[in-house]
Amino acid sequence: MSAAFKDGYELQIMEQVTDSRRTVEDERRLIRACAAAAQPVGSQDGGSSRFVYVLAAFSALGGFLFGYDTGVVSGAMLLLKKEMNLSALWQELLVSSTVGAAALSALAGGYLNGQYGRRKCIMLASFIFTVGGIILSLAPDKTVLLVGRLTVGLGIGVASMTVPVYIAEVSPPQLRGQLVTINTLFITGGQFIASVVDGAFSYMEHDGWRYMLGLSVVPAVLQFLGFFFFLPESPRWLLQKGDSQKALEVLTQIRATENVSNEYDSIKCIIEEEEKEAEGGPVLCRILACAPVRRALIVGCGLQMFQQLSGINTVMYYSATILQMSGVRDDKQAIWLSAATAFTNFLFTLVGVWLVERVGRRKLTLGSILGTGVSLSVLAVGFLLSAQASPPVNLHPTDPMSLNSTCTHYRFCEQCMLDPNCGFCYYENGSNISDSSCERVDPANTELAASGRCSNGTKESLSPFWAYNYCPTSYSWVVLLGLILYLAFFAPGMGPMPWTVNSEIYPLWARSTGNACSAGVNWICNVLVSLTFLHVAEYLTYYGAFFLYTALAVIGFFFMLGCLPETKGLMLEDIETLFSRRLCTCGTPGGENPHYIRPRLDLGKLHYGTLELEEGIAYISLQ
Ligand SMILES: O[C@H]1[C@H](O)[C@@H](O)[C@H](O)[C@@H](O)[C@H]1O
């Protein structure tokens, strides 16, 4: 049996074993599905239209808000803690509450996504962002601020799990990786813009934080209006809900061509099969009971876990400190240099967008985590050298208040710096440190000591320097090198790939729940790493903490080496099969041949066999 297709492909069935359960209709569907899948990358039905870019950009505003709202708080906090006299606990609460709320809402987002669709969830997230931004900018006190931060966190969680899924579902296979990675580009772009806004409003003595926190309303409203007026629901979700007519319309609109029948048929055929196979019960239980999807979930959650365990948010958060170690003393200058760090993160994410369809997800992720591990060890060595050359404390304050504090017991700057209650006060003459003391920090403003010569904040040439959280060191260049290397390696791969791969690896019925779980794991690990960093540093010192992250990155590398398959160029409907053979598949089943597709094997009722392309002819071997 053979069939010719409009696109010039001839389909030849090499071998056919009669299967009494297969009907003629099944055969037809199979051939169509395989033919659609067999088209070489770049010639899928309809290819791409400009509309799909508009769609991706509007959805990625969700990523922008994720980045903006998680990034802006550090600058806002500098002003807030002075204006509202916030204790350390309140500062911690206002920062972490958002991430905690994001973890919960990402988990709940799975249900909402499956039930109400991607479009409604994105609109819900932008509505929540708008309300949160308004609450924050008008907040009269810290309790209302907390409510605003929690609200924004709920929006971030839903957006973080919905947007990649939506973009993946509307994209043609050859552009999917790039378009989903644009969402992470928007996350890092949001973090960068947040740091610029922080810098600009840090000069405002009063209410600067209201503008910082409130500005997020603008992109949120824009996204809401875009989805409300002209952006469509995902055609895959519509098909799953049985709205075939609307799904066909949307697919035609997105691909900007009438010629979408092959793609439409292959999606439909597989969704129908899934429906036939579907058993009852909660989706998570079905995922756990179905080996290939369970494996996909382990890979997805593992990727998200190792993204956070390799310390991205600690490195970003402490970039200001790292830069201060390198001799940047002025606070305003340090804020602008953190903006440069955020920009570097953004710039290298752009490299990821460029590379993802060229080298594929697997190579990009493996190269990235390997480089991240090496950079983390450079950072650790930099901190180690700085600790070993730590300047001694040679003045011991004698006033009664100081005598009661633990700070006076320390003999070296390193010990003094690791105690969150103390800071290092010193004079500098060239590379010589003199008249140094370890003093209590002002709990309301860590830029000053609580008493003594470092407490008045004058910037006269004869006044001493105050170092909180760091020690002056001549090895700061090693740490700076580590920071730059870290961002250059992390941002193109480990930053975006966990989101991109998760949007691809689950079959439709498990996609919302799978992404909800993996995004939840990302946020939970994010809270864990940021909340534990200071304690880990206190017990293990800075270099110990960074050696620990190095070890975690190495474990992550081996995990991905063993378990991460290549999903580049495949139809979403074909990706599930990558997890169906062994626990850990290495690479694409067809090796380097990008045209090789292994259609769904052993789906129970239909046994599809394999399909290979050779000089424009698709060969199917049915089993
Ligand atoms: O992919 C993103 C990105 O790398 C961000 O810079 C980081 O702050 C997020 O935690 C991460 O999920």
Automatic annotation (TrEMBL):
<keyword id="KW-1133">Transmembrane helix</keyword>
<feature type="transmembrane region" description="Helical">
    <location>
        <begin position="51"/>
        <end position="68"/>
    </location>
</feature>
<feature type="transmembrane region" description="Helical">
    <location>
        <begin position="516"/>
        <end position="536"/>
    </location>
</feature>
<feature type="transmembrane region" description="Helical">
    <location>
        <begin position="368"/>
        <end position="387"/>
    </location>
</feature>
<dbReference type="InterPro" id="IPR050814">
    <property type="entry name" value="Myo-inositol_Transporter"/>
</dbReference>
<keyword id="KW-0472">Membrane</keyword>
<protein>
    <recommendedName>
        <fullName>Proton myo-inositol cotransporter</fullName>
    </recommendedName>
</protein>
<dbReference type="InterPro" id="IPR036259">
    <property type="entry name" value="MFS_trans_sf"/>
</dbReference>
<dbReference type="GO" id="GO:0005366">
    <property type="term" value="F:myo-inositol:proton symporter activity"/>
</dbReference>
<comment type="function">
    <text>H(+)-myo-inositol cotransporter. Can also transport related stereoisomers.</text>
</comment>
<dbReference type="InterPro" id="IPR005829">
    <property type="entry name" value="Sugar_transporter_CS"/>
</dbReference>
<dbReference type="InterPro" id="IPR005828">
    <property type="entry name" value="MFS_sugar_transport-like"/>
</dbReference>
<dbReference type="InterPro" id="IPR020846">
    <property type="entry name" value="MFS_dom"/>
</dbReference>
<dbReference type="Pfam" id="PF00083">
    <property type="entry name" value="Sugar_tr"/>
</dbReference>
<keyword id="KW-0325">Glycoprotein</keyword>
<feature type="transmembrane region" description="Helical">
    <location>
        <begin position="146"/>
        <end position="167"/>
    </location>
</feature>
<feature type="transmembrane region" description="Helical">
    <location>
        <begin position="179"/>
        <end position="197"/>
    </location>
</feature>
<feature type="transmembrane region" description="Helical">
    <location>
        <begin position="542"/>
        <end position="564"/>
    </location>
</feature>
<keyword id="KW-0813">Transport</keyword>
<feature type="domain" description="Major facilitator superfamily (MFS) profile">
    <location>
        <begin position="55"/>
        <end position="568"/>
    </location>
</feature>
<keyword id="KW-0597">Phosphoprotein</keyword>
<feature type="transmembrane region" description="Helical">
    <location>
        <begin position="209"/>
        <end position="231"/>
    </location>
</feature>
<feature type="transmembrane region" description="Helical">
    <location>
        <begin position="88"/>
        <end position="109"/>
    </location>
</feature>
<feature type="transmembrane region" description="Helical">
    <location>
        <begin position="475"/>
        <end position="495"/>
    </location>
</feature>
<keyword id="KW-1003">Cell membrane</keyword>
<comment type="similarity">
    <text>Belongs to the major facilitator superfamily. Sugar transporter (TC 2.A.1.1) family.</text>
</comment>
<dbReference type="InterPro" id="IPR003663">
    <property type="entry name" value="Sugar/inositol_transpt"/>
</dbReference>
<dbReference type="GO" id="GO:0016324">
    <property type="term" value="C:apical plasma membrane"/>
</dbReference>
<feature type="transmembrane region" description="Helical">
    <location>
        <begin position="334"/>
        <end position="356"/>
    </location>
</feature>
<feature type="transmembrane region" description="Helical">
    <location>
        <begin position="121"/>
        <end position="140"/>
    </location>
</feature>
<keyword id="KW-0812">Transmembrane</keyword>
